[in-house]
Amino acid sequence: GESVGLHLPTLSVQEGDNSIINCAYSNSASDYFIWYKQESGKGPQFIIDIRSNMDKRQGQRVTVLLNKTVKHLSLQIAATQPGDSAVYFCAENKGSNYKLTFGKGTLLTVNP
Amino acid sequence: NAGVTQTPKFQVLKTGQSMTLQCAQDMNHNSMYWYRQDPGMGLRLIYYSASEGTTDKGEVPNGYNVSRLNKREFSLRLESAAPSQTSVYFCASTPGVWGTDTQYFGPGTRLTVL
Lengths: 112, 114
Prior knowledge:
The structure holds 2 protein chains of 2 kinds. By secondary structure, chain A is an all-beta fold. Chain A has strands at about 5, 10-15, 20-25, 30-40, 45-50, 55-60, 60-65, 70-75, 85-95, 100, 105-110. The N and C termini of chain A lie far apart (about 35 Å). Chain B is about 0% helix and about 50% strand. In chain B, the strands form 2 sheets. In chain B, strands 2, 4, 5, 6, 9, 10 and 11 form a 7-stranded mixed β-sheet that branches. A 4-stranded antiparallel β-sheet of chain B has the order 1-3-8-7, with no helix packed on it. By secondary structure, chain B is an all-beta fold. The interface of A and B includes residues 32, 46, 89 and 105 of A.
């Protein structure tokens, strides 16, 4: 089966709320994780990444948390805006190569 | 910089026809990738090229061939298209040869095989 998966296929939030998108992975050898955003009709766009020697990393309005104990990754979006509506993918890299394994994605819908 | 560009954006083929999807990047990246994206599934790696002159199979290479023409260009060829190859195809590139680099994606080619 897939080594990277998502708990929820869809997430609907109100504008201004915080969003949390979750991702589980099964390969303990994975040491690099990425979140991508994909808007309708476009290619995936890099949001934020985190390496396995970190638990948390922050960007502009986004935070990624990594819990290696339970092999769980989350993306937090603060003050969600309509422009954040998209599919969000997590992906993992096992470090010894440059191939990514992608999850199926979560559709985030932001209601005005 | 245009980043990663792909042509064509849309294509309709009949079963058995051949075509080449073109990809180019102007970021001087070493590695390039071809993925396919099907509804309800994550991106799956078809082929990749770690550096100019090298190519390797990914997760789903059957029915495809690739050419790393130079450092900038990486093409994907369907020799005899099948309906199962209906998908959205993405090209990507990374700066480094190894490991943990951010992948930059093109806008995609939407292919339908009838």
